[in-house]
């Protein structure tokens, strides 16, 4: 019989626009050594076999507090001693880590002898005293950059494993779908430069906005698309700041929030620019970038951070709009380089970022922990 692993994370329910939820969903669906159980609400459509569901009760009211949902998740652990493996997947903060450690210790006092895996789904707010946030027998980080940050903070490297996130390759959109997206957002047949980041946290949107005048003077027919989903109360003000900055170029700039067919927009783009210098609240390698690799959309990314894991891309220094505009113009005028990035990106996706590859690496960790018991 396969050993059972319980994933402790945000409830695994739609919408699928959260990197840590998608990671658990796709990882659990592709394990072979272990039999996975994920936490979800009653009545939510089941995931693909062989995934089982730990019932969190009825779906909460629309405005239920995050804390009330966390209490349901932690309550599940009281009845989870049948699982020899617990796998926590969340962005570490002191409250969640202390609650998780208390749950683990209390169950061990009651005789549970299982092992704990902890995935650091995104960077903590600060790396000061970061060891207080880590409680797993084995720690999984999503990039070498994160591993080095933890090592510099004094975390034992023997506990850490680097396993990147995964993404299911989107079905290639049809030409009709691509043209529909172009029509919907009035992109005509222009070259599209897509920024699918944030307005509020990083300097990515400002960097793109500051590069726009140089880009559009050189390629006036281009369309710059900011595809940024509203996530915080600061969104309207941050969006307004970008719109004000780009008022002289408003005919060539588009602002999109929630996108029903992101894959079609990615395929409509001649490139994705993502000069994001702060990924707080996101997985180290945002899923939109992994999907772009699979679809064959070239990437321009920020140096000096976890994005360097995606080496099938062009890189610019963060907060450097001049360097960004030069890279954009280079790619716009160099079809052979774009094609090389497309081919390299698809190869990298297949070798490193598919759910099958990532699940196999997790299976190896589970097997080693079970063997060590």
Automatic annotation (TrEMBL):
Whether Cytoplasm counts among this entry's keywords is: no
Q: Which organism is it from?
A: Pajaroellobacter abortibovis
Record-level GO BP terms: lipopolysaccharide biosynthetic process
- What Gene Ontology molecular function terms does this protein carry? glycosyltransferase activity
Superkingdom of the organism of origin? Bacteria
Q: Does the keyword Transferase apply?
A: yes
What phylogenetic lineage does the species belong to? Bacteria, Pseudomonadati, Myxococcota, Polyangia, Polyangiales
Keywords, alphabetical? Transferase
* Protein's recorded name: Glycosyl transferase family 1 domain-containing protein
């Amino acid at each position: 019989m396969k050993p059972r692993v319980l994933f402790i994370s945000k409830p695994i329910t739609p919408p699928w626009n959260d990197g840590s939820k998608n990671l658990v969903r796709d990882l659990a669906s592709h394990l072979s050594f272990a039999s996975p159980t994920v936490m979800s609400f009653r009545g939510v459509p089941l995931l693909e076999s062989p995934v089982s569901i730990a019932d969190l009760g009825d779906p909460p009211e629309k405005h239920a507090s995050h804390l009330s949902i966390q209490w349901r998740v932690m309550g599940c652990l009281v009845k989870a001693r049948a699982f020899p493996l617990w796998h926590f997947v969340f962005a570490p903060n002191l409250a969640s880590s202390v609650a998780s450690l208390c749950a683990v210790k209390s169950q061990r006092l009651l005789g549970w002898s299982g092992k704990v895996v902890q995935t650091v789904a995104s960077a903590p707010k600060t790396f000061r005293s970061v060891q207080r946030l880590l409680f797993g027998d084995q720690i999984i980080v999503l990039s070498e950059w994160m591993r080095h940050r933890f090592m510099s903070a004094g975390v034992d490297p023997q506990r850490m494993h680097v396993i990147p996130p995964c993404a299911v390759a989107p079905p290639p959109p049809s030409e009709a779908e691509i043209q529909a997206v172009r029509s919907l957002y009035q992109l005509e047949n222009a070259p599209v430069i897509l920024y699918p980041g944030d307005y509020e946290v990083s300097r990515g949107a400002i960097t793109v906005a500051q590069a726009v005048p140089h880009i559009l003077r050189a390629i006036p027919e281009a369309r710059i698309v900011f595809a940024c989903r509203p996530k915080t109360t600061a969104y309207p003000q941050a969006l307004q700041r970008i719109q004000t900055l780009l008022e002289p170029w408003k005919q060539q700039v588009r602002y999109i929030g929630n996108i029903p067919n992101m894959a079609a927009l990615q395929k409509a783009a001649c490139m994705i620019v993502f000069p994001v210098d702060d990924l707080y609240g996101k997985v180290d390698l945002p899923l939109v970038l992994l999907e772009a690799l699979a679809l064959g959309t070239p990437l321009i990314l920020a140096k000096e951070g976890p994005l360097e894991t995606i080496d099938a891309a062009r890189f610019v220094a963060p907060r450097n709009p001049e360097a960004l505009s030069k890279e954009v113009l280079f790619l716009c005028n160099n079809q052979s380089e774009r094609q090389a990035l497309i081919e390299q990106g698809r190869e990298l996706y297949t070798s490193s970022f598919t759910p099958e590859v990532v699940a196999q690496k997790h299976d190896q960790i589970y097997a080693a922990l079970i063997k060590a018991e």
